[in-house]
């Protein structure tokens, strides 16, 4: 299938029109169905930018440009040169965080009564394509320097070779989804779908239909043709149930049946549908306590907890922080076309922090530091970090580096004033503690933009 001509033959088997461009809007591929639906000739489109095609009047507007601008799926109606109207669904294909290409699906507007099912089918195809693209890149999608996290990934690779149910435990932001995806990618199921659902982020009534699907007309507002749940959709693949501790009790009963009998029943149906889907669950809650409190079923807990993987928080594996920082800095530099780095003093500030939000917080802080700092080599500055390094830490750090004395003084002054503002109730108390006048305290608080309410 490496031969591009083979891909052209595959595209031509679709009844939907398919239009593919690169990230700049240059037309790469148009299938036969697109030509038949729109009446446009592929020779007039391939090799041209979408802006040029619109200017020449072949299309009234470009869905590709909207997808590139928003980096999100877009649905529009479009008028062709011959006056015909079509419905379009455009999807971005990502390489990490950057758009690699845009794939658009087109259908005659006369079949709009089926557009929702077509859209779901299109997303299904895009998901498969995205996962195959990620697999082809064969890049390790995790950073593991500490022995603690290496042990976690070693266990993940062992259980990847079998179909045992896995329960991943750890604080929020420790990388539970990363571990789940690694298990899937290293398993024999890696050519099928990996689908994630957050059990705590979806309303209870919608969660059941998303997991198990429903028959047409089974409740008010149900689609005429019904809906396929993710357990069916991920057949031969993996379903990742994040925040499993938030699943309602009545759905826990249905999940238990899936684990025991390997079958599901759609809402509104008594028919059992066999499935071959691996289940990986994760939570940051204490399920044993929830079992004792009768908010989580004991039998389900034992079914899920065949193999448990416990992710240590970032504060307990600090040797992972430097390579994680390097990874995030490289990604952000590439994403925003920058060339910034962190000074040794900034690295030490980051190493000294406890990271209650774990890896997710670290990633967000690194992006904040890089995009808000003007220097290419970033040192600790007042207000740059959401916390204040200790005075002792600042004195120790600045001794190792050459920076303007005024800048070092300002940083130190800001930290001392902010610490004092938290400790004392009035500017007079701060002045007495710092052995300066009260007007000087007021002036310096204003200079450093430290909020103060006496």
From TrEMBL:
Give the species this sequence originates from.
Anaerotignum lactatifermentans
Q: Which keywords does this chain's UniProt record carry? A: ATP-binding, DNA-binding, Nucleotide-binding, Transcription, Transcription regulation
Matching entries from SMART domains are given as: AAA (SM00382), PAS (SM00091)
| SUPFAM superfamilies in the cross-refs | Homeodomain-like (SSF46689), P-loop containing nucleoside triphosphate hydrolases (SSF52540), PYP-like sensor domain (PAS domain) (SSF55785)
Q: Where is the signal peptide?
A: none
| Annotated PAS domain residues | 3-48
- InterPro entries in alphabetical order: AAA+_ATPase (IPR003593), AAA_lid_NorR (IPR058031), Homeodomain-like_sf (IPR009057), P-loop_NTPase (IPR027417), PAS (IPR000014), PAS-like_dom_sf (IPR035965), PAS_fold (IPR013767), Sigma_54_int (IPR002078)
NCBIfam families, alphabetized:
sensory_box
Give residue ranges for domain Sigma-54 factor interaction.
Answer: 142-371
Output one GO MF annotation: DNA binding
The organism's place on the tree of life at top rank? Bacteria
What the entry lists under Pfam families is as follows: AAA_lid_14 (PF25601), PAS (PF00989), Sigma54_activat (PF00158)
Q: What is this protein called?
A: Transcriptional regulatory protein TyrR
A biological process (GO) of this protein is:
regulation of DNA-templated transcription
